[in-house]
Amino acid sequence: SNTEKSKKNKDFIYQYDQINPDNNKIYPVPIKDVCQEDYLYEFRDKENKDNKDNFINVNFYERCYKSFEDCFNKHLLALEKTVDLKKKLLHKEEIWWKAWICLQLVRTKRTLELACDIQNEMYGYTDKNEILSLVGPFMKVVQDGVKSEHDNFFHYICEKVENLGIYLFIIDEHDEKYEFITSDNPVYISKELDIGIYPVTPKMCFLLKTKEYDSQDWIVPVIESEYNLLMNNIINNADRKLYSKHRLKKSEVKSFKNAEC
What is the pTM of this model? Predict the structure, then answer.
């Protein structure tokens, strides 16, 4: 059929909804819209609370995030070339990837909700504008014309990640048995902030952790036990939805979630 032919000529991302498996979808690549929630990053005018469209500087954060996203393909190509040549990752590339991973962490709905809960617990109120300023990397809270003494969460995470080693688990492009899956919460990070996992493509996955390997051996061909550990953390860390290059089955997801690691 024409539909089948069009599918064969395109790349697709498959969505698996863990709460409602019947709600699975297929997105052509590049994905134009897998938005978690409308107006998630928008600032609002406090003096105009009754107006539901009381946004200030619409799409400010999305424009900032896009400036990073526009650089992604360039850095991905550089990463693939580095892997092919079995070279050490350049320091400037390491800095960019660590910043990118931290950015994916702070821009999620889960992080914003957690920040709101912490603010409410500590101060007895929730202010979305303040939360956006504290969580995001592009602004600081200003009170009475003075910047807040504490830095924002993005810079805090970057400081923690800066001293971690960066390793890349790879799957041979001809290996059809293994494939890295990502989710609506794309970065796993431990409570101690000493381990981070970020699938960058179906065949490459970053691991951030204390330095154990020789600096020349930062590229690690994946083995089954390590693969199961990575997938277990990625899938159990998801809020709801998983994304993959093949159509996930319920039994497959269950086996990853229950994998002994």
Answer: 0.77
